[in-house]
Write a structure and sequence with these properties.
The complex is a heterodimer of chains A (374) and B (298). Chain A has two domains: 225 residues, no CATH class; 108 residues, abc type-2 transporter like fold (3-Layer(aba) Sandwich), CATH 3.40.1710. Helix content of chain A is 66%, strand content 6%. Chain A is built from 14 helices and four strands. In chain A, helix 7 packs parallel to helix 10. Chain A is elongated, with a radius of gyration of 29 Å. In chain B, the strands form three sheets. Chain B has a six-stranded mixed beta sheet, sandwiched between helices. In chain B, strands 2-1-4-5 form a four-stranded antiparallel beta sheet, with helices on one face. Chain B has a four-stranded antiparallel beta sheet with strand order 12-13-11-14, with helices on one face. Classes of the chains: A mainly alpha (374), B alpha/beta (298). Chains A and B meet through helix 1 and helix 8 of A and helix 2 and helix 3 of B. Chain B: Keywords: ATP-binding, Nucleotide-binding. Chain B: One of its GO terms (molecular function) is ATP hydrolysis activity. Chain B: Pfam families: ABC_tran. Chain B: This is ABC transporter ATP-binding protein.
């Protein structure tokens, strides 16, 4: 026990003595949390919108004014011909071209309908999809409006069509504030990445410096060394969580409905999983560079398959099965459930026990692969 | 016997690092492994300090088998690797305290053993190990290797990269430790240090060529070595190599060491040959053989 305490003391001393490391550990994640939470939005705004109005009628101008009124669209300009507009799309100055055909107004009144042509820059497919939805929403609502108007014009006695209007109610995040949704997720990423990187580089650093060889000839026990080395990073992980939760509450006003104690309890076990992965990486690499690349490999896969940026439901089945191995997935799920939904222990018991299982399995492998003798 | 090595072989993926090595070190002996870089010295150290498992053969240190009783060995040996391997970001005192603690002892308990050495670095005890000079680092590493009062001390190239004065001091310290009953196995590529050991093993390409005391090794050397000097040293080596009865020619400090095939050697003949090759200021004299000469001949 005395030995473990002494190693922990030594480890903290080294961390705090490393002047470049302190800001990396504490300041960088906070900057990331502040920047990413404000920037990583799924809302698509400032769409560069342009139009070609071949009709120049009241109806066409009214339709364009709908786009001008929307805060998702920046109406850049109108073009005289499709050719000019296409060229502007090619140079990247516009994202969306709406072409209103000749006799638009006349066709609507006389023939009860007309066609519009919409061209969308689909280099970013996801964005194009969202843009298309926005555009059809605007056109649909406009369509309904003129329908009612036209009926009124033609036959005052005509029965107004019955419209079924749905008013959705968004539970757990009723203003659809994406920050409420993203901040807990990004916080999870930061806690994970930082502890993974630090722990995977830590023992390998001793290997690189040659100090591990000196340690290995001492009678120190495996478990003493490993606990002594990893405990400080476990503490650091919880400190980062604390700072992150504070920022989430104070800066982003993210609700914390569930028990904070439950979040800490889960995180403390989750960190064991991450430290175990870090230790396995450390054991299997010879230099810090190697360790860093392997840690990167895992963190990129973990992050992109965590459901944070792309919904897991839309992944192919094999990828969905693979995500079940991803510890970040469970952490993101749990922290959102506890913070936004006020979930209690019984609600999260399934992912909780999975994480406990991982903690045991990974640390078992880690201790087993750590060898004092070659 | 303090260290016993029998037929130890180790290869790293088909490349043989050491092959069928055997030697013994008596208790309280200062034993040197002398050989060039890549001879397999570090491999032997790593096997004996239980960091590496040999492919074949057995070895014991302080009476404990290196495979079965490795735990006992780790408690009773001190190891100083060739590369400085203490925590550069901890101070001198913290490093020493750290190693004392993980060996389950305290600095005070064995202070008399390291006192002579520690006194020299004590003025810098609050300085970080990384900021020490090469000689100071060696002294600190030696203190850390001694803090648990080991029975056997392994020093892998302790004086590589250390200035001549510190090297000399270092060997004096080793002699004093030896008097305290500690068995010391030391490796070095410097032939002049070999003469300071009780016995040495000359090692090259993973095999031991000779084991004896330095005096005996020199005494048993039967060839006569000539120091030859001339103005144009490079041309001199080339011309000597073309001399019909040459046995070996190599540069040794400021002169050339020359050995003749014939036991009866007439230096005037060689002098005439060199004069013919237009060499100037030729000096030929008999030299005292050193360990290096013996080694070059093996």
């Amino acid at each position: 026990m005395k030995t473990i305490l002494f190693i922990i003391q030594k480890e903290f001393r080294q961390i705090f003595r490393n002047k470049a490391m302190l800001p990396i550990i504490f300041v960088l994640p906070m900057i990331q949390l502040l920047i990413l939470s404000n920037a990583a939005s799924f809302e698509i705004k400032n769409i560069k919108f342009s139009y070609i109005d071949n009709d120049h009628s009241v109806t066409s101008r009214e339709l364009i004014s709908k786009f001008q009124a929307s805060n998702y669209f920046n109406v850049i300009e109108s073009f005289s011909s499709k050719k000019v507009a296409d060229w502007q799309m090619q140079t990247g100055k516009v994202d969306v071209i709406l072409e209103i055909p000749n006799h638009f107004e006349r066709d609507i009144i006389k023939e009860n309908g007309s066609n519009l042509s919409v061209s969308i820059n689909a280099i970013d497919g996801a964005a194009a999809g969202v843009e298309s939805v926005y555009i059809s929403q605007i056109i649909n609502s406009y369509n309904q409006k003129i329908q009612t108007q036209l009926y009124q014009y033609n036959e005052a006695s005509y029965i107004r069509p019955v419209n079924i209007v749905t008013i959705p109610s968004f539970w757990y995040n009723n203003t659809l504030n994406y920050k409420t949704f993203m901040v807990p997720g990004i916080l999870v990423l930061l806690v994970t990445m930082l502890t993974l990187f630090l722990s995977s580089m830590n023992i390998v650093r001793e290997k690189e410096m040659g100090t591990l060889e000196q340690i290995n000839v001492t009678p120190i026990r495996k478990y003493q060394f490993i606990i002594g080395k990893l405990f400080p990073f476990w503490v650091l992980g919880l400190v980062i969580l604390t700072v992150g939760l504070t920022i989430a509450k104070v800066v982003f006003s993210v609700p914390i409905l569930g028990s904070i104690g439950l979040i800490y309890f889960f995180t403390s076990i989750y960190l064991l999983v991450i430290l175990g992965i870090g230790l396995i990486i450390s054991n299997n690499s010879d230099t810090q560079q190697q360790a860093m690349f392997i840690a990167w490999f895992f963190s990129v896969i973990f992050i992109l398959m965590s459901g944070l940026f792309t919904p897991i439901e839309s992944m192919p089945q094999w990828a969905q099965n693979l995500t079940l191995l991803n510890p970040i997935l469970y952490f993101v799920e749990i922290i959102r459930m506890v913070m936004l939904k006020g979930a209690t222990f019984s609600d999260i018991s399934r992912p909780f026990f999975i994480i406990i299982f991982y903690a045991f399995a990974l640390n078992g492998i880690a201790v087993w692969t750590y060898k004092k003798v070659n | 016997m303090s260290i016993k090595v029998q037929n130890i072989s180790k290869s790293y993926n088909k490349i043989k690092a050491v092959e069928a090595i055997s030697f013994e070190v008596k208790e309280g002996e200062l034993f040197g492994l002398i050989g060039p870089d890549g001879a397999g010295k570090t491999t032997i150290f790593r096997i004996l300090t239980t960091l590496l498992l040999a492919n074949e053969g057995t070895a014991s240190v302080a009476g404990f088998d290196v495979v079965k009783e490795y735990k006992a060995i780790r408690n009773s040996v001190g190891y100083m690797p060739g590369k400085f391997s203490l925590y550069q970001d901890l101070t001198v005192e913290e490093n020493l305290k750290f190693f004392a603690t993980i060996f389950g002892t305290t600095i005070e308990e064995n202070f008399d053993l390291i006192k002579d050495i520690y006194i020299q670095i004590e003025p810098f005890k609050a300085r970080r190990a990384g900021a020490l000079s090469g000689g100071m680092k060696q002294k600190l590493a030696l203190c850390c290797a001694l803090i648990h009062k080991p029975k056997v001390l392994f020093l892998d190239e302790p004086t590589t990269g250390v200035d001549p004065v510190s090297r000399k001091e270092f060997w004096q310290m080793l002699k004093r430790l030896q008097q305290k009953g500690i068995t010391i196995l030391v490796s070095t590529p410097y032939m002049d240090e070999a003469a300071l050991c009780d016995r040495i093993a000359l090692i090259q390409k993973g095999s031991i060529l000779k084991i004896d005391s330095p005096e005996n090794i020199i005494k048993k050397y039967d060839k006569i070595i000539y120091d030859i000097k001339a103005k144009n040293k490079h041309q001199l080596i080339l011309d000597l190599k073309n001399y019909p009865s040459q046995y070996s020619v190599f540069a040794f400090g400021e002169c050339i060491h020359y050995i003749d095939k014939n036991s009866v050697f007439n230096s005037t003949d060689l002098q005439n040959y060199l004069l013919e090759k237009k060499h100037m200021e030729i000096e030929i004299s008999v030299s005292n053989p050193t360990i290096e000469d013996v080694f070059m001949d093996l």
